[in-house]
Design a protein that fits this description.
Layout: E1 3-7, E2 10-13, E3 18-25, E4 29-39, E5 46-51, E6 57-59, E7 67-72, E8 77-82, E9 91-101, E10 104-109, E11 113-118
Parallel strand pairs: 2-11
Antiparallel strand pairs: 1-3, 3-8, 4-5, 4-9, 5-6, 7-8, 9-10, 9-11
């Protein structure tokens, strides 16, 4: 069984920073792409940032220049450094990973971590 466990969410004032972490645990897997999605109340889930196994990154337009995604392959962990946070960044943030396990490629999701930015 593979699990993604997120940490680092919380309440922060506008202009502040938070760092999210997501660690993949289990056995017999390799990680392809990893990323972060978010879902605000009444809105669809959207991609925030993604990083490939080779280190290529892409970001949702509203977070460019403020958020940075990175990964530590030795620790099977992806990070999201969020700076200059705005109230509109408030959402549940979900970790996502594309993993290959026993030759089968599947999507995995974390349970989500709440990020609340107060004005």
């Amino acid at each position: 069984q593979v699990q993604l466990v997120e940490s680092g969410g919380g309440l922060v004032q506008a202009g502040g920073s938070l760092r999210l972490s997501c660690a993949a645990s289990g056995n017999a897997f390799s990680i392809n792409d990893m990323g972060w999605y978010r879902q605000a109340p009444g809105k669809p889930r959207e991609l925030v940032a993604a990083i490939t196994s080779g280190g290529s990154r892409n970001y949702e337009d509203s977070v460019k220049g403020r958020f940075t995604i990175s990964r530590d392959n030795a620790k099977n962990t992806v990070y999201l450094q969020m700076n200059s946070l705005k109230p509109e960044d408030t959402a549940v943030y979900y970790c996502h990973a594309v993993l290959t396990r026993w030759g089968v490629v599947n999507d995995y999701w974390g349970r989500g971590t709440q990020v609340t930015v107060s004005s």
